[in-house]
Amino acid sequence: MEILPKTLGTRPRLAVEIRWGGVVAARAEDASSGVLSAVSRAELGADVIEPGLKVGNFKSRAAVVAAVRKTLEAVTEKGLGREVTLVVPDATVRVLLLDFDTLPSKAAEALPVVRFRLKKLLPFEADDAIVSYQIMSGTRSVAKGALRVVAVAIPREVLEEYETVIRDAGFEPGAVLPSTLASIAGLPDDDSATLVVNAGPQAITTAIVENGVLMLHRSVDMSGNVQVGILAEAMVTMSDPEEGTISVPLLPLIDVDASQQEWAMQEAVDPFGRDIAWGLSEEELAAHSLEVRIEVEAIAEAAAEARVAQTTTNGAGPVQGYVREVTQAVSVAAAYFEDTLERSPEVVLSAGSTSAQSLSAMLIEAGFGEMAEGRMRVRELVDSEALVAQAVTATVPKGWLTGVRGALRS
User: Fold this and answer.
1) For the purposes of burial, counting CB atoms within 10 Å of the CB of 243, is it exposed (0-12), middle (13-18) or buried (19 or more)?
2) How many structural domains is the chain composed of?
3) pLDDT tens, position by position, 271-300
C-alpha cells in the first residue's frame, strides 16, 4: 500500500479522516469531479485523539473505532465495497523535499536511496518508517538534469495504529494520505498560485500550490510549537511587531511539468464575503450558526488543554496565544509567497476546523494590510458545489470535508 498512490483513479470511493475532535467520512460517485454524495461526522472528546509520531495517538481506542464505524456505515452503500482512503493528521507524518542528481528508474531500487537521504532529516528511525515518494521535474531552483522528490514518511507503528482502527471498524485501508496533501488534492489544475491554511487546535499547516506544483509544505505543532517539514535551504527576512526583524527558513521554489500530482487539483471556490448572510435561507443560516458554534467550542476546548495553555511571550492568554500562532504561520507562508512569486497572495483557502470567517477575522485583527484593504480574501477550500444537495448537513462544517473531498478526487 502507498501513502501517495501513483496511479490516478485507483483510490477507493469512500474516504475517512481521523483528526483531533472527531472523525469525518464521505462518498463520491465521480472521481473526476470529487462531488460528495454523502457525508457523515462523529464528534469525539478533546482528549480522545492526540496525533503524533509515537504510538498512543488514541487515548480511547474503542471510541475512535466506534466513530469510524458510525461515519463510514452512514456513507457507504450496497455493492460499493469496504475499501477506504484513510486521511491521517499532519502531525503523524513528515513531508520533505529532496534533491537528487539521479535516481534509479525502478521504484524498488529508488526507494532505498530516498530512505537513506531521510535518515538525518527525520525525528524517527527511517529504516522502520513507511516511506512514499514522488519525482518532480522541471523545477526552477534545481540544476538541469537533477531531480526533485517529495517524500512522505510515517512511523510504521503509528500507521499500523490508524490502519488497525479502520479494520476493527469493519473496513480496509486502501490508500493513506496526510491531511493537508489530501486537502489540496482537489485544487484546480490551472496556473494560479494558492495559499492553503489547514488550522486546528493542535497544529497548523500552510501549503502553496502553483500550476499543480507543491511549492511549500510547512507544519507547526502547537503542542510543542515545533516547525516541521522545512528544508532550510533559503531564508527570508521579515518584520514582527514583537520579535523585531527575524529570519525564517523557507523551502526552495518548486516548479514541475504536468506530472501526476494527485494532491494538486481543486475546484474553484466562491469568494468569502463579509455579508455572509445575504441570500441564505433560514435553514442555511441555522446551519451556518451551528457551524460557527461548533468551531468556537472546539477552539475553546483546545485552549483549555495544557498544550496551548501556556501564555505567549507578550503575556497573552491561551486563546490569544493560539490566534498568534495561526496568524504568524500565515505570515511566514505569505512572506514566502511574496519572496518567490514576487506578488502577494490574493486568496487564502481555509481547510480544517478553523473556518474562513474565523481565519479572516484573525488576520484582520493581526493587522494584515492586504485583508484590511481588500487585496486578500479568505475562502473555504470546499464550497457548496462540492456536495450534492442531499449530502449537505449542518453538523459537518465544510472545513472538515477538505481532506476527504480531496482524497476522493483523482
Assistant:
1) exposed
2) 1
3) 222 233 334 455 555 555 555 555 555 544
